[in-house]
Amino acid sequence: MSILLIEAFYGGSHRQLAQLLQEELEDCVLYTLPAKKWHWRARTAALYFSQNVPISEHYRILFASSVLNLTELVALRPDLGKLKKILYFHENQLVYPVKKCQERDFQYGYNQILSCLVADVVVFNSVYNMESFLTSIGKFMKQIPDHRPTDLQSVIRPKCQVAYFPIRFPDVARFMPVHKIAHLKKMLSLNGNGSTVLSKDLPSQPEQRDSENLLENFKSESDVPSAVDIAQENLDNSSMQKPVLKKSNLDNASSHHGENNDNVTHDPLNLLGGVDDQQRPLHIVWPHRWLEAVYCGCYPLCPKDLVYPEIFPAEYLYSTPEQLSKRLQNFCKRPNIVRKHLYKGEVAQFSWAALHGKFRSLLTTEPSEDL
Asked: For the whole model, what pTM was predicted?
């Protein structure tokens, strides 16, 4: 257990990353707090972990998300301060949206700046996240009435790098329209130096075990029910429950016709009451997991702002609410535009298959490399 993983907010993407690293990397031990009362986790988690992480001579690396006040932890536990300390930013509190600037609690952003100062490596999940944090430090620190520290950006920046959030894509072929399956395989093909070339088959085994929960992950971070519930119900009826439907159809066939029909196939139109693609309503989903939604065949429609231009091609971005409304109206009138569309951006670069080498290199005790 040379790698010590600490997650003060063990839920959503924070939990997903911690679990992935623990499962895929050797010699990991994970300590967590439940994903409740985020503000209190940011304020007090360091003290809790200082008392509950056992002292061990085997630890070599400490990996934590930026919810944890790393400065407090290493002050309370000098033994952990000697480790290679990696801080991972899922978001940053210097630009995290608030209704009014006056409502931004100075302490949370200040804690993240201090944590960066004591960390050995600071990792962000996007270039946007990194640059928005670094370029906001100066303005943020001007809130201090006097005796302000200076040049913090120049101290922190050399420690910083980007490692996109790694996704272990499951096999969702049974959810997909036929015309999108080949495109899905193509999107997952990785080529180039040091990359893994996936087989012709879609991901199996480790990835498959999560496939049933993929759409549930989309909803997990939202408190507001959305059309994804309807979409999930359709998927459950048409795909995930095929064995049950087949048995039911066979039973019905036997009772009505007295014959064994082992080759029963299922026409999606029958399951949808005979409604074709053009007549079916378009489901508009707020997935909270874009990189996964596109992989599952969704058409992304995102603001030309924040991290979205870094991830999605320009044709999937809108600049104004009017543009968004116009495009949605067009899609609703002509849903086949969306249903038949093949995504033109990259997905494979966000997969664990593409990123595992970067994370393995990061979580070593060797001198840091340019990743």
From this structure: 0.76
